[in-house]
Each structure stands twice: as C-alpha cells, then as structure tokens.
Design a protein that fits this description.
Number of domains: 4
CATH architecture of the largest domain: 3-Layer(aba) Sandwich
Strand content: 15-25%
Radius of gyration: 24 Å
Shape: globular
CATH topology of the largest domain: Rossmann fold
Largest sheet: 7 strands, mixed
Strand order of the largest sheet: 5-4-18-17-16-6-7
Helix content: 25-40%
Bound molecules: iron/sulfur cluster
CATH class of the largest domain: Alpha Beta
Number of helices: 22
Distance between the termini: 56 Å
Structural class: alpha/beta
Number of strands: 28
Length: 709
C-alpha cells in the first residue's frame, strides 16, 4: 500500500454473509479490497468475489447520464436529470389520474441499501397509494419470512454466525454454502477441523462441494423436503428423542402435528425421497442425540411451490427437540442478497410495511400512516413478482419503475417477462450498469451510484447491521438510489399534493435511517438505539437494539417466549405436496438451477472481471452419466434443453454428482451472453401459495442432441 492510499471500511455488496471490507483508494479510484479483520461476520476473510470487487469498476458498463426516449422503437438520447424526472413525474401523474394507483408498480432489489428501500416504500405507499412494490427478494427468501411468521409469530431468524462454529450437529438443507456463502462455509470448515466431533448433515439432490464436508449426505429427490422432515420427526417421536418439557411449556399445536407425521413412516418417506430407511434413521439419531442442533437453509427450500411448508417443517424439528434459543442451536435461514433483511425491515415486499408490519393489517396501516402524517395507506393487496409481470403483460400495469435488478434475466418464464416489458407503456430503469437485459426495455434509464460510491445500512443473515460507506465519487452524473427516488417523489408531489409540505425532504442516509428507525420502536426488530453514528462508534450490531442498549442481541428466544398471542411457538402441520411440474415422457428430466462460486446473479458486476471466469467460463448443462449415455452424448456435445416455456442450446457434460433423471445448469447467464432468452426461459412461474415465491429449483425438461448443419 503506497503512502497516498486511503482506506475506507465498508461492506461487501454481494451476498448475505455481509463481510466487512477495507477499500483501498486514492479518493478517485478504488485500487484494492481486503477483508476487515474487525468485522464480526468475516474477521478478515473474503471470498473470490469480495476480494476482486476493485476489478469490477469497468466504466464502459456503467450508466453515466440519464437517457430518455419519447416513443417505443425510438432510440434513447442523453438528457438532463431535471428533464428526465419531470417527464417521469408527468407520466406517473397522468397514469394515476386516468387509471388509479394500482396501475403503476415498483420492482426493486435486495441489493438496495436500507435507506433506498425506505424511500421507495414511502413513495409507493404514502404518495402513490399502492402496495404494488415488490422486490427480487420475492425470488429469494419470502418463504423463510412466511415460515418464521407462522412458527414464531414474527420474522426473526434467531441465531448468530458464532452458533455455526459452536453447534454439535449442523444440518444444511438446500444450500451450497461453499459457493453461495463462501466465507461462512470457511468458518464452518475451520470449526469442524478444530472440533472433528461436530457432525454435519447435508440435504441436497446434488453432491455439492458443501456435501463433501458432510458426515451424512442425504441426496434426496428434489422437492421432497417436507416428507423428509416429517419422516425425521416420526422417528424422533418413536425413539423418544424429543423434549417434552419444552414442547409443553413453550409450544402449541403438537398433537395435530403428531397426528400428521404418524403417517410419514420411514418406509414411505424413504420411497418419496429416494433414500434408504437407514439413512433416515441415522439422520434422526444425529439430531436426536446432539447436545446442540442447528439448521441452515437457503434457496433449495425457499424456491419451491411448497417453500413455506419446507420452512415450517424444518422449524418443527427444532421446536420438538427444544433446540432453539441456546448456543449452537436453532433454525437459521441464510439470505442470498446483501440486504434482503433490510428489505424485510423496511417492508419492501408487497405484503409488508415498515417495521415488520403487514399491509393487510388495518392497525399496522394506521400506525404507519400516522407516522408519515398521511390520511391512510392503501388496503388493496399488492402484486408479488410473478403476479406483477403477468399484470404488466396483461396491460393492467401502465407504468413500471425497476431499480437495481434485472428481471429480464432473473424472473422465471422469461418469454412472458420480455413480452411484458416490451408491451408496458412506460418503463423506468434505475440502474448502475446499463448493460443488463432489462435496460434494453427502458423508456427512461437513470444512472445509479454503486458499491464504493454510496452510503447506507445493510443487514446480513444474522440480523447484523453494518455501515456501507463511499470511497470514491460516482461516475458521470450517477446518483445514490435514495436521492433519485426522493427527487422523483418531490416532483410527483407537485401533481398529487400541491402546496403541501414534502414527505421527502431527506438530507442524506443518516437522516433517512433516523426517520425509519422510529417505525421499529417497540417492535421485534427495535432499531431505535442505532444510528449511523452509533454503528461508526461501536461497530456492526445485531438487532433488536432498542434505545438505551449498549450492544446488540446475538440470540433470540433464550427465555422460550415467542411473539405470538399466547407466547408459544406454533407447530405447523402441513402435508407434503409433490412439486408442480412432474417428469413425464415428453419432459423426462428435472432441471435445477443454482449459483457458481465466482459469479453473482445476472453478472452485471462480476461479468466485468475476467478473472472471475477462470473458475467456469460458460454455462454447461450437467447430466448424470447414465442420462448422457442414454442419449449417446459425449462431454461438450451441444444439446437442446426444452421446457414447456422455451428452449436453449448449451454444451452438456456428464456429472456423477447428480441423481439420474436430474439436470443442473448455473443460473447466471442471460440473453446478452446466450442466444435465446437466457437460462430462465426454461424455469417455471409456479409459486408457493403463501409466500408467492416461485419454484425456480424445479422444472421438467427434455434434452436432445443438436445436429449441426
Ligand atoms: Fe462478499 Fe459474500 Fe464473499 Fe463475503 S462471502 S466476500 S459477503 S460474496
């Protein structure tokens, strides 16, 4: 490090581990990134993505100036911010006047900072008067939100990263931590090396790098998780490996659940899951005899048409064994995105409101409306991600504002999404990287500041809030997301509430956070003791952190009290349901999608760093060797993969880590890299009825060799 190098502590912008980074820069350019040894999430470690953040500053990919087009089919031209936002305000005002508040929608992102989320929430709910504000977190963790709320009465993941190191038995379900949460996985690997007696169970249809660490790998049929968890509880009951005192003192609904799981005999469950009875018995034995038992899960459970049932069935195991609220024990969902938790806190799903409130609850709406000093908040249900793009396609949404996300690559059933974006009368895209597939559809393209240039808060998977700090100025005329949103909102106010004091006189992220935090007062996540200054003084903290607190809260429910009406956690007795799309003769394989170690989402940022293609250069379809042989395919043969929604041509390779009948492809490539509409042209829009999270992990497909002319 040269003498002129400045160092700014901040947070990695990729995954929900939320690692602290030290940005090395000269005030103009970022030269390097190292792990922050003082940050409790990573203690100095970084993965391949975090440690190459400084290589992702390619200005040719960045948006530098607003661009506007005044008609479909015309080219966009550079414009001034004033022109851009006045035009947007006029179009939104006209649309609202003609078609009402639910004719517009906002689709935002788990990449946004807490203050950005808050500004969007106030814009949609208080000014526009719609609940049509959803986030790409709908695709990521909305099933976990429903799971926690059904089981605990509150969206409160109870554990800390330290519990992962201190647990005696760790169950990892539907998560390839080694790729998706690499620093956390490294902490686990190191802990297991120090304490070889620690047992690790991995539940995953693939033998992933994570499964390589496991003492027991249950390579189950995709989508059979509820049956598995009920079957494990059946054995725990049979063997007496439950905590009757905890159940009696702190839970409700156990008798109903007992009646449900009575039918899930080991033989039946082994058949549904494609496992052996002995594997189920061994798994139950490890859980039932462990002094402490912790479970981690991610997209494999959440991205399912039974996502909320997967969550509650796993939480049932903890409640039945009393494994919660203690060191090394508890159910612990991992968030994919860096600030998915901040989205939950600020109410950035269409069914939520700030402070872990529900949009459907009249008292909650009144509380927020009073705080914002507006008459009332909208009571009509907001559209969730899949519903939202269907509504755009059907012409019910006339103006759509997209921020910091790329639905033209990431939402399932891409054919519909592209049709919707092409047909929508007015599309605004607020984005740092103007290279994404979605930007193509923008009538108005607004350049946003990005990581290293903007300031605000993020909350990681363990409820820890960190300060994201700017190191260098944003390029061109790019502006922070909260500032774009508030500037637009003030211009829209001139149409919707002329002459009234503005609701959006924000002065900066610290002031926005201070406004937001009082909406959490007395609630499960109470943030009122925190501020930007407090975090700067005492470091990242875990909520709740009420006024007067001196440190955060590492573990919840230690007293066995839950935030339900009767103070008891609830057993949820939901039956196993088979996945929505079944294999059939025309589509005989099940396609799973997931992350690579070195890429992030649609690759808008990681795709700019050549080094990150060293691990995997291109998307390849993995098939079990038997399925390759049956089709007389050799490695790297080109194949056409077809689902009911579309098809793609990719190279294929034999991969013995899969079960026969399964196919796997990484999720990151969109149509700027591939011919066709990218990987998600194949995936299906079926979703969980409660969480509305789509079943991205499971689509029926056919694979056939492509004969080159
Ligand atoms: Fe960033 Fe996640 Fe890697 Fe940490 S583990 S450096 S937060 S991508």
């Amino acid at each position: 490090m040269s003498q002129t190098t400045l160092v700014t502590p901040s947070t990695c912008c990729y995954c929900g581990v939320g690692c602290g980074v030290l940005i090395e820069h000269d005030g103009e350019h970022i030269h390097g990134v190292t792990g922050d040894p003082s940050h409790p999430a990573n203690l100095g470690r970084l993965c391949s993505k975090g440690s190459t953040l400084h290589l992702t500053g390619d200005l040719t990919a960045r948006g530098l100036y607003p661009e506007l087009r005044l008609g479909k089919g015309l080219a966009r031209a550079r414009t001034h911010w004033d022109t851009a936002l006045d035009h947007a305000a006029q179009v939104f005002a006209d649309t609202l006047a003609e078609h009402g508040p639910d004719s517009v929608a906002f689709y935002i992102s788990g990449q946004l900072l807490t203050e950005d989320y808050y500004a969007f929430n106030k814009l949609a709910r208080a000014l526009v008067g719609t609940n049509n504000l959803d986030s790409n977190s709908r695709l990521c963790m909305s099933s976990a939100v429903v799971g926690y709320k059904r089981s605990f009465g509150s969206d409160t993941p109870p554990c800390s990263y330290e519990d992962i190191e201190q647990s005696d038995c760790l169950l990892i379900a539907g998560s390839n931590m080694a790729y998706a949460h690499p620093v956390l996985f490294r902490r686990l690997e190191e802990a297991k090396a120090r304490r070889p007696e620690m047992k690790v169970i991995v539940i995953d249809p693939r033998r992933t790098d994570t499964a390589e660490l496991a003492d027991l790998h249950l390579q189950l049929q995709p989508g059979s998780d509820v049956a598995l968890f009920h079957g494990l509880l059946h054995i725990l009951l049979w063997e007496g490996w439950i905590d009757r005192a905890f159940i009696d003192a702190h839970t409700s609904g156990f008798d109903e659940l007992k009646r449900t799981v009575r039918d899930y005999t080991p033989a039946m469950v082994a058949d549904i899951c494609g496992l052996r009875v002995e594997q189920l018995q061994e798994c139950a034995r490890l859980i039932g005899n462990a002094p402490s038992f912790l479970s981690l899960w991610c997209m494999g459970l959440n991205q399912s048409s039974n996502g909320s049932g997967n969550n509650t069935a796993l939480i049932n195991l903890h409640l039945a064994t009393g494994q919660i609220g203690r060191t090394g024990a508890g159910p612990f969902s991992l968030t994919g995105q860096p600030n998915a938790m901040g989205g939950r806190e600020t109410g950035s799903l269409s069914n939520l409101l700030p402070g872990h409130r529900d949009a459907a609850n009249p008292e909650h709406r009144d509380e927020v409306a009073r705080y914002w000093q507006v008459g009332q908040l909208p009571d009509s249900p907001g559209l969730t991600a899949i519903e939202l793009f269907e509504a755009v396609r059907d012409g019910r949404i006339k103006a759509l504002w997209i921020a910091c996300t790329n639905p033209a690559q990431s939402v399932p059933n891409q054919t519909l999404v592209h049709q919707a974006l092409a047909a929508c009368p007015f599309v605004v895209v607020q984005e740092a990287f103007f290279t994404t597939e979605t930007c193509r559809y923008a009538d108005l393209l607004l350049p946003a500041a990005s990581w290293g240039e903007k300031e605000g808060m993020v909350t990681n998977s363990e409820r820890r809030i960190s300060h994201v700090r700017p190191a260098v100025p944003a390029p061109g005329e790019a502006r922070p997301d909260w500032a774009i949103t508030a500037d637009f909102a003030r211009r829209l106010e001139r149409h919707l509430r002329p002459g009234q004091p503005s609701l959006f006189d924000f002065t900066g992220p610290a002031q926005i956070f201070d406004e937001f935090k009082w909406l959490t007062e007395g609630r499960d996540l109470d943030l009122t003791g925190l501020s930007h200054a407090v975090i700067d003084e005492i470091g990242p903290q875990q909520w709740p952190f009420p006024t007067g607190a001196h440190q955060g809260t590492p573990r919840l429910y230690a007293d066995g009290e839950f935030p339900t009406a009767d103070g008891r956690a609830r057993f949820v007795a939901e039956q196993y349901r088979a996945p929505q799309e079944k294999r059939e003769p025309r589509y005989p394989l099940t396609l799973n999608t997931g992350r690579l170690r070195d890429q992030w989402h649609g690759m808008s940022r990681t795709g700019t760093a050549a080094r990150l293609f060293g691990h995997v250069e291109e998307p390849i379809l993995s098939l079990h060797p038997d399925d390759m042989q049956r089709r007389q395919l050799k490695d790297n043969a080109l194949v056409r993969i077809s689902s009911r929604r579309g098809s793609l041509v990719l190279p294929a390779k034999a991969d013995p880590s899969l079960r026969p009948g399964e196919a796997y492809v990484p999720m990151h490539w969109g149509d700027r890299f591939l011919k066709g509409l990218g990987i998600n042209v194949l995936t299906q829009p079926a979703y969980d009825p409660l969480s509305k999270q789509p079943e991205l992990k499971l689509s029926a497909v056919a694979v056939e060799a492509v004969t080159l002319p």
